[in-house]
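USER:
Working in pairs, take the chain set out below, taking as long as you need, and write a paragraph about the fold.
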Amino acid sequence: MSQHSNIDLYLFDEALPDDFSRPESVFKSECVPDKKIKVEDLFQFKRRVGDYQVSVAALAIALFFLVFFFTQTGWQDRKLPDNVGSYFAHQIGLIELDGRVTRFGRILKQSWVIPMLCLALLVPAALWNWHNAYTVNRQRKRFQLPTDARYEYSQYLRALEFVAYFILYTLMVPVLGYLLSTVLLGSYLTFRLGYRSPVWIARSLATSIAIVLVFRTLLQIKTPLNIWLYDLLPTDWRSFMLTYF
């Protein structure tokens, strides 16, 4: 068997030798090469480093909801009749019971039904996902491939930065108004993501103003009635800004 035919024996990309994974050059660049997006790639799923830890967290969340299902949905206080089958058939709307007219789907109005249906899908899916992730994680350890997920954790923590920006934005609106807050946030996020040329700054300003015109001026999305900056304006200007901006 030739050396190149042994590539198929590798189960993970990290196990590929450098001369096979990058045959065109031995130069290693820090820049990720651009890739053409194919439709079939959008539906491709592949487990990577950190997937096992995320699967454990997802399973813990599913089991947490399952444990508190009985106390938080009113299920433990239910008093079921002796003929449970006829009761549920009436609730679903299949039969009449004691002369009462049946209505299809009336059981959906009870508080415990939708959470039970969600858990019926969530818990088995979380268990199946954890099992597959555990199997892959064992294979990675067997082939001495990296399993440390600290880098993946850092990426999740980095995403919290933009959650903080959104919280700050909601706090800015009652103070500076929807127009100025949106323009400031839109411009800053563009600058923060690395688009710092005058052209991109102008585009971010135009986009922010367009968002305000669509959602506030045209659609009249509600904003706080008392805005600190608008309260400093004359009465006519204050009414105009509160109405359209």
